[in-house]
């Protein structure tokens, strides 16, 4: 089973989040434990990654006593690692849920033809990270034809005079569908001047 890039990014991001939160929690608990131990016995020798010092009573003093703030830095770095993972998940989610988009590119809205017309209807359809399975073309509720490969188009032949509303419906490889905005076209009777140029 081949995984998409979004799934791989999601898995890696989840691992980073879990690892980062685990390490950050561990370091934080070690810091708390060391503070507690220090308060109970300030004469203990070095125990973790830094040397104990006498007379420390507050978290700030204890943290500042660590060589270069080692444990504190490790904890912050671990939390930062978790945040990087969260950002990865957000990016993955945004990419993974980009909508399926389709629009008719030809003819243009308001186009006119003379009957009997042969009209090629074309559409653009795309979705990030997935595949468009097919695009269906409609006049009103009537299916005119379907196209499964780009550039998506069908030819509507011998169109009689009248006014028509065209839409395109795209379907992706998961069965998700979306419909384009409708465009209007006019087909005039033979020998008549199309409405869009009759006033010139």
Give a brief description.
With 200 residues, this protein is an alpha+beta fold. It has three helices and nine strands, in the order H-H-H-E-E-E-E-E-E-E-E-E. Strands 2, 4, 5, 7, 8 and 9 form a six-stranded mixed beta sheet that branches. It has a three-stranded antiparallel beta sheet with strand order 1-3-6, with no helix packed on it.
Jot down its keywords:
6-stranded mixed sheet; alpha+beta; 3-stranded antiparallel sheet; 9 strands; 2 domains; 200 residues
Q: Would you write up a description of this structure?
A:
- Helix content is 35%, strand content 30%.
- It is of the alpha+beta class and 200 residues long.
- Helix 1 (5-40) packs antiparallel against helix 3 (70-96).
- The longest helix is centred in the first third of the chain and has 36 residues, at 5-40.
- The chain has three helices and nine strands.
- The protein starts with a helix and ends in a 12-residue tail after the last strand.
- The chain has helices spanning 5-40, 59-65, 70-96, and strands at residues 101-106, 112-114, 117-126, 132-139, 142-147, 152-159, 162-172, 177-179, 183-188.
């Amino acid at each position: 089973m081949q995984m998409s890039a979004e799934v791989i990014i999601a898995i890696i991001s989840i691992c980073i989040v879990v690892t980062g939160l685990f390490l950050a929690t561990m370091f934080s608990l070690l810091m708390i434990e060391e503070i507690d131990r220090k308060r109970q016995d300030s004469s203990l020798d070095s125990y973790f990654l830094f040397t104990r010092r006498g007379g420390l009573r507050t978290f700030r003093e204890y943290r500042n006593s660590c060589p270069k703030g080692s444990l504190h830095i490790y904890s912050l770095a671990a939390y930062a690692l978790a945040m990087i993972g969260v950002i990865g998940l957000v990016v993955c989610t945004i990419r993974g849920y980009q909508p399926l988009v389709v629009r008719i590119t030809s003819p243009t809205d308001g186009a006119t033809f003379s009957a009997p017309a042969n009209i090629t209807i074309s559409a653009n359809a795309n979705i990030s990270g997935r595949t468009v399975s097919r695009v269906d073309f409609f006049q009103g509720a009537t299916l005119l034809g379907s196209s499964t490969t780009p550039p998506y188009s069908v030819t509507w032949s011998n169109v009689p005079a009248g006014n028509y509303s065209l839409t395109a419906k795209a379907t992706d490889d998961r069965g998700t569908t979306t419909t384009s905005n409708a465009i209007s076209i006019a087909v005039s009777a033979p020998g008549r001047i199309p409405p869009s140029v009759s006033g010139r």
